[in-house]
Amino acid sequence: MRFPIRAKLLGALAIDLILMMVLGYFAVHQMATMNERAVFIERHTIPSLDTVGDMTTAINRYRARQLEFLIYTNNGDRNRILDQMRAIESEMSGYFLTYRSLISSPREQNQLDAVEAAWGEVVRANHERFIPAVRLVSDGSVQPFYSRMNPAYDALDQAMAGLVQENQRQARASLDVVAASYDTARTFIVFDTVIAIIISAAIGLFLSARIARRLRRLVEATNRVSAGNFVGSINEQIRDEIGDLARAFDQMLASLRHQRSELEDRNRALQESLARQAQLMEEIVRGKQAEAEAERARAAAEAASQAKSAFLATMSHELRTPLNAILGYAQLLHLSKSVAEPHAQYLERILASGRHLLTLISDVLDFAKIEQGALELEYSQVHIPTLVDELVAMTLPLAQRHHNQVQAYCPAEIDTIETDGRRLRQVLINLLGNAAKFTENGTIRLEVTSAKRGDVAGIQFAVIDTGIGIPRDKQDKLFQPFSQIDSSVTRRYEGTGLGLALSKQIVQALGGTIEVESEVGVGSTFTVWLPTIPVSTVASSSLSSKLPLVGEPA
Amino acid sequence: MSFILVVDDNFDNRNIIGQMLSFSGFKVELAADAHTAIKLARQHRPGLILMDLSMPGLDGWTATEYIKRDPELGQIPVVAVSGHVTRNDIERARQAGCVEFLSKPIEYEHLISVARRYIQ
Question: What is the CATH number of domain B4-118?
């Protein structure tokens, strides 16, 4: 059941109001009673007593007329007095009539009847005995007649006194009632007021104490909350405004608790996230440092590599300059034919050794480049039939020296491929040169064919000789640096020992393969396969095609 | 028949190239530095210049560039002759205006075939 504070206060007020109304009603009632009594006294007692007074006067005048009737002896005066007597009698009848309308009790009626009867006796005694007796007496001895009237008058006086008494009694009764009413009203008003004050005070004190206590609990709870303590609740059971407030407060508290726990959760999550971020940052920083270190290392490596490249270039140039003089003058001597045998053969040996040295220098340079990953590839459109013609032309002198035939096979559909022409040429010159060196009285054949490896279109160059062949157990060492089958071969056939290793590196760099098939005493076949779709699209400067390298040794 | 101007700071190189060309019947003028070469070229108008690249003072790349920009000498073909055989060196020679590149040591047959391409 819900009782708002306003209802409670209104209830207290209503109790007071009811008490006031009862009080008012009772006061009005008492006042009405008093008024009624006052009106009674005014309308009844006072006119009654006035009438009684008039009647007394009239009775005294009547008695005075009787005395006059005794005194005056002539008939004229006596008749006039008699008329006066009769007037008083009718006056009295009027008074009785008046009084009858004022009668308020049977007792008064009885008293009035007694007065009227006594008056009637006086009048009858006057007319029947006094007046006739006086008329009969002519002398002045009428005194006894007058005395004989006394009993009647005494009775009348007695009756009148009774009536007055009755009136007085009535007036006293009315005044008593008024006094009683006043007493009652006063007592009631005092009592009622005291009760009202007590009830109001009690209710007020009770309510205010209660409200104050409940508000205090709220304030305490608020202080707790403001101090950061969200635990507990007010648990107000009474359903009114403060109850509502307390419940709202409890809800707020619950909400605060919930929000705080949520906040704490979020804070925790945030801190974890921050920690993770910090960790991440640290990792990034570490990564950056590692990156920077790697960059420094790379830069250092690059600088070292560049220094090495510069050194190799310089070395190459410095070696070539004296070699140029040696080979140049040897060629000039050879051209002049001024050197006679056996010295002409020595000259040949000088030229051959010089050229060999040059090849060595070139190969060492290339190999060093490959070792440091500095081999630059330059892709361009290479016309294969032209290349084949050039290769045959270059191979011919050496091949013919050993009495070999040179054959080339290049079908019409072979045209242009995109590759590093200079490097391909270097590889094929090396293979053809080897074939020419290791074959005597035989055939050296270059076969070019289209060949797919898996899904990749490609071109295949096969260098086939009928030379000394390579033992099976040596074949897998063939492409390793400085692995010519034995030093005697090196001495006899003039190889750097780098040629095949270099060729394999170059072919691999071009995305292709190099293989060997050989049988001792039958011959060897070296097969180079290159993809016709380039593995990488290195920008072509087409330098080699515009500026052919004349005199570049094999 | 017009002559060939051989420019090289190294006596042996200059001498060998000159002797080889003379042996094959070409007329030859020799210059030990690029300044002398340009002066000779202006005076005698060679049919071909064989230019060493790495020389003290005015180097072969710069000299070739100068010759190629000169309205009178621009038409003379210049062939680079060098022991510098890296791609970078060759590319620089091409950009300077050299039509061909001859690597040292010089092979007689190659030298003569190149010379024949420009001098009839």
Answer: 3.40.50.2300
